[in-house]
Every structure is written in C-alpha cells, then in structure tokens.
Amino acid sequence: MQQLMAVGPTTFDWREAPAPRLLSATDAIVRPLAVSICDADVLYMRGRLPVRAPFCFGHEFVAEIVSLGDEVTGFGVGDRVVVAFLIACGTCAACRRGLPTACTTVNAKAAFGFGIYGDWGGALCDLIRVPFASTMMALLPANVSPAAAASVGDNLSDGFRCVAEGLDEQPGAPVLVVAGGGGTPSVALYAAAMAVALGSEQVDYLDSDPSRLAIAEALGARPIESAAAPRRMGCYPVTVDASGDPTGAWLGAALRSTAPYGRCASCGVYLGDAPVPLGAMYDRGVRFTIGWNNPQAHMARVLELLAAAPGMLDPIHTIAPWNEAIDRLAQPPTKLILARPEAL
User: Which residues contact 344 (CB under 8 A, 6 or more apart)?
Assistant: First the structure.
C-alpha cells in the first residue's frame, strides 16, 4: 500500500509500505476517505514544533471499515466512521472519566500521525489499523459527507469542548473567541461555529487576520479585528483562547474578558511558559481549562450537530483531491481537507 511520509517539515513523499493486519480482537482495519490537516500539522510544517524522524502524516480522518476483530461491537464492514486521533483503551479509569489523554493502558498522548509516543501510523495511507476500535470510532451520520466530518476526531471536537461546557451551564450565554495571531486558527473558527450551533446569543470572534474574520462572519459570529491584543474586551461567561502566543498577551485578553466565575478554555499550543494574569483571575474566580483535547468524549455530540446542519462548516473548509496532497501541503489554507472522490 501507499502512505504519505513526512520526511521533514516541508518535505513529503509517497512510499510503499506493508498493509496492516488485525493484531487483536479489538482492532479494526479501515481505509481513510478524507483527511483533515490539523493546526498542529501546520505548526510542524512551519518549524514551530520539534523535528522528528520520518513518519506517516495525518491524524484527523474519516474512513471506511475494511475488517473487524471479533470483539469489536457496534460496527460492520463497509461502515463509514470518524476515528479519534488519540489512541486510548476506553476502559481504564481515566478513559471512563472521559479523559483518554490520561489513558493508563496506552502511553500518554499516543496518537496517529505524529511520529511520537509510539508508531501508530498516519491517516494519509491506503489502510490503517485502529486499536480499541469500539471506543476509537464513531459512526458517520448518513447525511454528513466524510469530507465535512474529517476533523471531528480532533480539531472540531476541540473547538466544541472549548464552548460546550460553559454553554451547557449557561444556555445562550455570550461567547468570545480570541484567535489572536492564529496559533490554532481552525480550532478557533470551529469554536465559533460550535457556539453558534449550541445557541449562544452572541459569538464575538477576535482576530488580526481579515480572511479568518470573513470566515467567522460567514459562520454567524461577529468579527472584531485587532492588530494587537487588547487588554480586555468586555465581560463574557464563556471565552476561548486559541492564540498559542508565548507572550501571553492574547491569552491575557481572553482571561480578563471572562465574567465572574465564567469559563475560559485554551486550545492554543504552548510549548513553554506564558504570563498569566492570576490577579484578575483570582478577583473574578475565573475557571480556566487548558490541555490536550479528549475527542472520544465529544465526537458523538459533534456529529449530532453536523447531522442537524450538514453544511455548517463549509466556510472553513478547503477540499482538495487526495492525489494532490503534496502540492496542497506546500501552502495549506486555514483548513485543508484531502478527500478521495467518494468522500465528497
């Protein structure tokens, strides 16, 4: 079979590899149909993440089931499924709490398509083995295309979790999404889209990039352009930091804009320390969450939202043919999705 190898941050090569096989009764073999390029992938391609040995690229994907182990339940050969990017057993105490990033069965933060925390393969390939398949996969709704749902297993569920907890607690609450310099731009836009879908009465989207601001407006959010991070934007029960800015300026804007005992979630990728306005947070009792996404805990609800409005994410996505992967990765748009013809 063929798989796309990341030989370096800007060098990709299709190579032959042995086809995977079932190694456990809990495994599935699937054929990727649509692969979404993650914000973390783009950070790697821009040299902002550590270089690593060559690895098979891609970890956000929808696939068709080719074969199943005897202990996989709830799925059949031929089903189309979203696959979580994060490898987790689904049965340990952490997984049962909805925290697969802390899975005690698998090395912490093992994942497809990163080339770290174990060699699990990547999604830009002809076939891939999915361990713990019953918990790693979710059925794709019949009215949602694989391309539209390609990011559910990571970035889209990440955007969802940033706003869902606050909106579950305060239905209809105003939301502020601080994209800043665009550290995780697709997650920021997904957070805005999810907030609209969940019924927020006002979704404000703060960014420095005109093209992303236009996308946010098309999603139903109110775009607010700012070349630099403001100190404070107002008072929002739900705020999101998607900046990943090591200076902490955009993060500080999100935290200072959080209402008393409101929720601020950060999906920005921080590789080191950043200043945090603890005094302002203490004064208002801000509840702050940061860390890796736990996609298995959110995929079902995200797919329900997509099924209710299948085209809701169209303004974010740029869909390109599977066989153009190398050329398209040279200059990826905000959210590139590589799709086989049957995935559209």
Answer: 145, 147, 319
